[in-house]
Amino acid sequence: MERKLAAIFALDMVSFSRLMEADEAGTLKRHRSHITELLEPAVEAHHGHVVKGTGDGLLCEFASAVDAVECAAEIQRAMPAREEGIPADRRIEYRIGINVGDIVVEDGDIYGDGVNMAARIEALADPGGAFISESAFNQVKGKVELGFEDLGHRAVKNIQEPGRPKEAGIHPPGVRSAGTAAYRCLPRRLVGLSRVRGLGGEPVRAVDHSLQLRRVAAVAHAADRHLAGLESRSAGP
User: Fold this and answer.
1) Taking Cα atoms as reference points, which of 194, 139, 185 lies closest to residue 165?
2) How far is CA 112 from CA 1, 9, 48, 121, 132, in A?
3) Among candidates 6, 226, 228, which has minimal Cα distance to 105?
4) Are 170 and 198 in contact (CB under 8 A)?
5) Whole-angstrom distance, CA of residue 196 vs CA of residue 131
6) What is the pLDDT of residues 96-149, one digit of tens each?
7) Which of 60, 157, 58 lies closest to 103 in space, CA to CA?
């Protein structure tokens, strides 16, 4: 048994049961094609390791959170074109969760809270998107050409240790998170989320805090003017 720190990458197909019921043969054929032609090559190209297949997804390990997030970006950017021409209700989409944490490696598999957190985060992600934990966000901020949107705290069940994951939302253009109600249904532990932008075809942009800074500056300027007026009146003739 070995313990180590790693970036854990959990990928899962959205609505797997429904897709299988609608078209079992077609869904399995396309899923296998995505695995062999896109998912596994992308993981390898970004220096990751596929630990195991999960039937409708993959569990992977990376030494670098930057590599894991860039791998997620490559996969989610490529998926819409690969499913083009498939009826909307039968298209395959994946969710991805990425966490940096301590894991246990044994007999070719990985275990531990680090893995559990990645799986919980993945379950919250938008279809065609990804969430990353705060521990992963702290490793990638300023190092990837993607924007991040902070969504505040959300609840994650069955995770005992305190923590604050961030949402990395990788999704098609025009699609926003519809997970608010789902988050309210997870009454366990509160975690913080932020969304990554620029992975579904929309222009890549970093988070811009200039508007908030301008607002702060405007408030400060108004306060200075008000204080100056009070001082002027108090001085009087």
Assistant:
1) 194
2) 12, 14, 19, 15, 17
3) 6
4) no
5) 8
6) 999 999 999 999 999 998 999 899 889 888 899 888 888 898 899 889 887 776
7) 60
Instruction: Show the tokens assigned to 133.
Output: 């934990």
pLDDT score of 159:
62
The CA–CA distances, whole Å, from 192 to 154, 164, 168, 178 equal 6, 5, 11, 17
Q: Cα–chain-centroid distance for residue 42?
A: 17
pTM higher than the cut 0.70: yes
pLDDT at 37: 98
As given in the structure block, the two tokens for residue 128 are: 């065609």
| Model confidence pLDDT, tens digit, residues 157-171 | 666 544 555 555 454
CA 56, 192, 16 angle in degrees (round to 5)?
A: 15
Q: Is 156 exposed, middle or buried (0-12, 13-18, 19+ CB in 10 A)?
A: buried
What is the chain's Cα-based Rg? Answer: 22
Structure tokens at 200: 């579904």
Residue listed under structure tokens 């988070």:
207
- Distance, in Å, from the CA atom of 117 to the CA atom of 103, rounded to the nearest integer, reads 11
